[in-house]
Amino acid sequence: MSTVAAAYTQNNALNEELDELASICRNTLSIMSALNAGYISHEKIKDALSDLAVEIVHLHAHSDGLQDLINDEIGKNG
User: Cα–Cα 20 to 30 A to 43, which of 3, 52, 57, 74?
Assistant: First the structure.
């Protein structure tokens, strides 16, 4: 996670989770780009799929409770 979360909202917890989500998405897109780059060795495919599996677990862990943080923020400003 970056040391300074983007200032999406006044809610620091939500900002940190959104910053982490952005990082996970960037990493996932980078892995997908590598997989779609054309011919890569079977070993590199296995490495990329392993990295992708890690990002999926990371996404799952960081998305738990995120919807509640978002809903709370919407409720405060709505």
Answer: 57
What is the reported pTM? 0.80
**Cα(first)–Cα(last) distance of the chain, in Å?**
29
47 falls within a domain: yes
In this structure, the chain runs to a length of: 78
What is the rounded average pLDDT of the residues 29-50?
92
Going by C-alpha positions, the residue among 59, 30, 61 that lies closest to residue 47 is 30
Total structural domains in the chain? 1
Residue type, 21: L
> What pLDDT sits at residue 3?
47
pLDDT given at position 25: 96
Contact present, 24 and 59 (Cβ < 8 Å)? yes
Helix/strand/coil percent split, the chain, to 5: 75, 0, 25
